[in-house]
Design goal:
The structure is a single chain. With 186 residues, this protein is of the alpha+beta class. It contains five helices and eight strands. The chain is 46% helix and 21% strand. A hairpin with a 5-residue loop joins β1 and β2. It is globular. 28% of the residues are buried.
């Protein structure tokens, strides 16, 4: 009777749902932070871009506390009243893929440990300043790769696992990588 374990079925289904929800929350949180940073206005009544992002948050069932936390982070406030710093981490993932991880944090030590753990757990390594930056050029507020790496779908799955692990951290604002593969998500 292999495959008929009810607990395994529930665990796998819930895990998949949580992964989709986490990705949706990350995307909406990014929209909220971007809208607030662009106008330096955290009031949805006077900021149309923020109002649109908050409506999107409601559509994906994002809790009000999470929305407010994203607005506060974009305004530079934290829950403890400490200032929030933007820190960029650079590292290499599986198959030599370069990663730029932009974070906004009130505790640099905690965030550095979390990022280092995500890299080491998924076959990557955290690099020093400038070790990956040369692979990217800045275009406005975003980074674009100078040298794209083409990967097979199997290699892409390993890289996607690292990307997903980085995105799950609540301090991570943006993740850029210089790889592409057939069937690539986001």
């Amino acid at each position: 009777m292999a495959g008929h374990n009810k607990w395994s079925n529930i665990k796998n289904r819930k895990g998949a749902q949580d992964k989709r929800r986490s990705k949706a929350f990350f995307e909406v949180g990014k929209m909220i932070r971007s809208a607030v940073k662009d106008s330096q206005n955290g009031d949805p009544d006077t900021n149309p871009a923020l109002r649109l992002a908050v409506d999107k948050a409601r559509s994906v069932n994002m809790p009000k506390e999470t929305v407010q936390r994203a607005i506060d982070r974009a305004l530079g406030k934290s829950e403890t009243g400490e200032s929030i710093q933007e820190v960029t981490y650079e590292g290499y993932g599986p198959h030599g893929v370069g990663f730029l991880v932009i974070t906004a944090t009130d505790n640099v030590q905690r965030t550095a440990g979390n990022i280092r753990f995500a890299f080491s757990r998924n076959g990557g390594s955290l690099g020093g300043p400038g070790s990956v930056m040369y692979l990217f050029k800045r275009e406005g507020a975003d980074f674009v790769s100078n040298m794209m790496l083409d990967l097979s779908p199997e290699q892409g799955k390993e890289v996607q696992a690292l990307y997903d692990a980085l995105v799950e951290d609540e301090d991570v604002e943006e993740v850029y990588m210089n790889a592409r593969w057939e069937g690539m998500e986001s």
